[in-house]
Amino acid sequence: MADPHHPASTDADxxxxxxxxxxxxxxxxxxxxxxxxxxxxxxxxxxxxxTVWFFPGGSFMAALIASxxxxxxxxxxxxxxxxxxx
Length: 86
Description:
Elements: H1 8-14, H2 23-54, H3 60-78
Helix pairs in contact: 2-3
């Protein structure tokens, strides 16, 4: 059986709440949110384009127009808002 080098309680005792640097975690979270929202818009636009184009009676131009409209509306809805001044 493996011999632990130190008991697990040593790590728990060494932790001080609020002392960890989290700047990298915050930046990673912001990147994830950014990629998730823009990736979702891109996925929705591609699905809309393909659905309208290949729908029976659908056309390429109708699909292109619908996709551009959704892209523009989505861009305005998802772009970063300026931070509120206090």
